[in-house]
């Protein structure tokens, strides 16, 4: 997948939540990116960069809103107008930041309640599963 990082891709209109992959259109072919390999997304104008766990990245012309609506909601959370993160890669969480390895991302004020509710829900679900 490291070769994909230089190419512009288009996110297809769905995510297969049962298979947990994100279909992306790469030139004339469709590639399936395993959602478990996606660390986070960052938008910059009309383009979104998808950061993967192998340190490569993909660039797409898709909005974070479209991604947010299609990604597995138990795995990904929007933390800022410019960022969506995969909770499985969060190594540290503070009141206004999350850290994914060496990358610290700010939790936007407009998204703080949503982010706190997301982690509270996960915490209560894990307590119920442990009971």
Fill in the keyword field for this structure.
131 residues, 2 helices, three-stranded antiparallel sheet, OB fold (Dihydrolipoamide Acetyltransferase, E2P)
Note the gap between the termini: 40 Å
At the fourth level of CATH, the homologous superfamily is: LytTr DNA-binding domain
Mean pLDDT: 82
Decide which structural class fits the backbone: alpha+beta
Q: Which spans have pLDDT < 50 for at least 5 consecutive residues?
A: 1-17
What is the correct CATH architecture? Beta Barrel
What percentage of amino acids are in beta strands? 35-45%
What overall geometry do the principal axes of the alpha carbons give?
globular
CATH topology: OB fold (Dihydrolipoamide Acetyltransferase, E2P)
Continuous helix count: 2
Helical residue percent band: 10-25%
Sketch the topology as an H/E string, one letter per element: EEEEEEHEEEEEH
Overall tally of domains: 1
Rg, nearest Å: 15 Å
Main β-sheet description: 8 strands, mixed
Number of strands: 11
Strand numbers in spatial order across the main sheet: 3-2-1-6-5-4-8-7
Under CATH at level 1, the class stands as Mainly Beta
């Amino acid at each position: 997948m490291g070769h994909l990082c230089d190419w512009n891709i288009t996110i297809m209109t769905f995510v297969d939540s049962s298979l947990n992959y994100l279909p992306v259109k790469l030139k004339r072919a469709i590639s399936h990116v395993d959602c478990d390999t996606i660390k986070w997304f960052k938008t910059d104008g009309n383009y979104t960069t998808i950061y993967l766990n192998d340190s490569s990245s993909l660039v797409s012309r898709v909005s974070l809103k479209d991604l947010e609506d299609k990604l597995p909601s138990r795995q990904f959370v929007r933390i800022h107008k410019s960022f969506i993160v995969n909770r499985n890669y969060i190594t540290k969480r503070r009141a206004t930041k999350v850290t994914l390895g060496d990358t610290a991302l700010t939790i936007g004020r407009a998204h703080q309640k949503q982010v706190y509710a997301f982690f509270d829900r996960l915490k209560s679900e894990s307590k119920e599963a442990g009971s």
